Amino acid sequence: MLRPPGNIRFMVIRNLSMEREQSIKAVRGSFLDITRTVQHPEEIEGHLRFIKDGLLIIRDGRVEWFGNWEEGHHQIPDGIRVRDYSGKMIVPGFVDTHIHYPQCEMVGAYGEQLLDWLNKHTFPAEKRYKRSGIRPRDVGVFHQAVAA
């Protein structure tokens, strides 16, 4: 299994693509990402990419360049400050995309505190589905949509 060196610390940096004070960002550090969407977790290992000394250039919220520092540092425009996170691991943001069938009607609904949201929206929706008699075999469209 591909493992980053033990001396690299993980850290959280805020979403650089959302910043607006300048339209170009340059970030240096160690990067770990997955280069391909996979169908099965055991496939992930074959698509891990680790760049020990990497560079990410973002222009107007979009990745303009990504790769090794040595190959890309000359592409940083003059006057752009490099955010140097050397020795730190930078990974893409993680998004929880799981869903439960009874929650389909509330996808994208206003987010409250988790327990409030569950009590106000999710649990009542689950009770309605339970009372309606919907069975697992009745939700083929849901499974097709999730697989798409």
Automatic annotation (TrEMBL):
GO BP of this protein: guanine metabolic process
Protein name per its UniProtKB record: Guanine deaminase
Record-level Gene Ontology MF annotations: guanine deaminase activity; zinc ion binding
Listed cofactors: Zn(2+)
Residue ranges occupied by any Amidohydrolase-related domain in the UniProt entry: 89-123
Alphabetical keyword list: Hydrolase, Metal-binding, Zinc
Organism of derivation: Serratia fonticola
Iron-sulfur keyword on record: no
CC terms in the record's Gene Ontology section: cytosol
EC number of this enzyme: 3.5.4.3
Gene (name only): guaD_1
One Pfam family linked to the record: Amidohydro_1
